[in-house]
Design brief:
The chain has about 210 residues and is α+β, with helices and mostly antiparallel strands. It has a domain of about 110 residues. It is about 40% helix and about 25% strand. The strands form three sheets. It has a four-stranded antiparallel sheet. Strands 6-7-8 form a three-stranded antiparallel sheet.
């Protein structure tokens, strides 16, 4: 099987790839931005250095040698001039030149406008994405202002925009809290449907040498 890595065209696909890999031991990370014209070369560089396109069997071999396994997450919208990238790595050798942080650190992983957070489901620790505290403060303030102006149409538009954001568990919980805040302030318009993130593709494959 030829080596490749997925390219996420949407935020949801990029964030879902991280959620799928963190529970598998990919808990160290570093991230950055690259011009779209240089993104393929960067992916190839990371494959040469860290084997981001390795098959499951090759990853087992690397693990047996004490080497870290690495995945690359790329948020690369169509026609974008810049690409956001994030490397996730397991424990092991081989990334000594990278400045890596742990997703479990107090200073949470924040990427593409969201922050990674733990939650417990039936005594099992799981991961999700949620909006940052600053964004939630701004959204509550916006809804309060619109409610004070008795602008039902504006509140409805704000709630619809909120509902279109990636439907991870943490984001949905926050979205419902914002809907409740609007209701408590007298909003009597329709509430949006809060969608769940379904199992989605991580993106089209970028071939690697």
């Amino acid at each position: 099987m030829s080596a490749s890595t997925p390219i996420a065209r949407s935020k949801t696909a990029a964030l879902a790839r991280i959620l799928d890999n963190v529970p598998k031991g990919y808990h160290r990370y570093t991230c950055g931005t690259v011009a779209a014209r240089k993104a393929e070369a960067l992916a190839q560089k990371f494959h040469t250095l860290y084997g981001i396109g390795c098959s499951p069997a090759q990853r087992l071999i690397r693990k047996g040698k004490g080497l870290a396994n690495v995945v690359l997450v790329m948020h690369w919208p169509v026609d974008a001039e810049k690409v956001e990238w994030l490397l996730l790595a397991t424990d092991g050798k081989g990334l000594e030149t990278e400045t890596l942080r742990d997703v479990g650190d107090k200073q949470r992983l924040k990427w593409l406008g969201y922050e990674l957070a733990r939650h417990t489901n039936r005594a099992k620790v799981m991961w999700t994405w949620r909006r940052t505290k600053d964004e939630m403060t701004e959204l509550h303030a916006l809804i309060a202002m619109q409610a004070n102006q008795h602008d039902t149409a504006a509140i409805s538009e704000t709630l619809e925009r909120i509902a279109r954001q990636p439907g991870f568990r943490g984001v949905r919980t926050q979205s419902w809290a914002l809907c409740e805040a609007a209701l408590q302030r007298g909003y009597d318009g329709p509430l949006p449907h809060l969608y769940f993130v379904q199992k989605i593709s991580h993106g089209e494959r970028l071939p690697l040498d």
